[in-house]
């Protein structure tokens, strides 16, 4: 079974000190790359960024801080609602700072998406076909 999992979620995006603006996060999971979740962020029909996230890190971020590099995740409460706060650090500015954006998404929706991915490829059942990968690299594709 090689079924893709897709979900589009409404998010709020905050860059710098600006207010949050609505956007979309298009989440994708391909069992051929079983450890990764692709997230494409868009606003008013324009793609803002594309990131590949570790599926386990995304799961961990729903309940505790996760990530130490360019991507940092952590849960936040809004009364009875829970958000996943996703921080992304990009290329450096000329002044030494870095591009930085924060995306807020409803945690339950991310959890629903992850449960679908786990039905497709259960944790611990991920397989990486290194021989195929190396053959592709050596063939120049």
Describe this structure in words.
The protein is built from three helices and seven strands. It has 141 residues and is an alpha+beta fold. A seven-stranded antiparallel beta sheet has the order 4-3-2-1-7-6-5. The model has no long low-confidence stretch (mean pLDDT 89).
Biggest β-sheet, characterized? 7 strands, antiparallel
Q: What's the β-strand tally?
A: 7
Q: How would you state the average pLDDT, rounded? A: 89
Outline type: globular
Cα-to-Cα separation, first versus last residue: 25 Å
**Low-confidence runs (pLDDT<50, min 5 residues)?**
none
The H-and-E topology, N to C, reads as: EEEEHEEEHH
Proportion of beta-strand residues = over 45%
Instruction: Please identify the structural class as seen in this structure.
Output: alpha+beta
Which bin fits the share of residues in helices? Answer: 10-25%
Annotation field: number of helices: 3
**Radius of gyration (Å):** 16 Å
Strand order of the largest sheet: 4-3-2-1-7-6-5
């Amino acid at each position: 079974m090689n079924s893709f999992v897709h979900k589009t979620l409404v998010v709020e995006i905050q860059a710098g000190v600006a207010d949050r603006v609505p956007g979309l996060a298009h989440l994708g999971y391909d069992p051929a790359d079983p450890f990764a979740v692709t997230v494409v962020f868009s606003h008013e029909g324009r793609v803002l960024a594309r990131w590949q996230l570790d599926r386990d890190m995304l799961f961990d971020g729903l309940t505790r801080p996760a990530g130490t590099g360019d991507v940092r995740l952590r849960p936040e409460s809004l009364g009875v609602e829970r958000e996943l706060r996703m921080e992304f650090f990009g290329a450096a500015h000329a002044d030494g700072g870095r591009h930085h954006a924060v995306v807020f998404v409803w945690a339950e929706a991310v959890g629903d998406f992850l449960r679908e991915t786990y039905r497709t490829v259960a944790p611990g059942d991920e397989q990486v076909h290194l021989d195929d990968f190396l053959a592709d690299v050596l063939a120049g594709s």
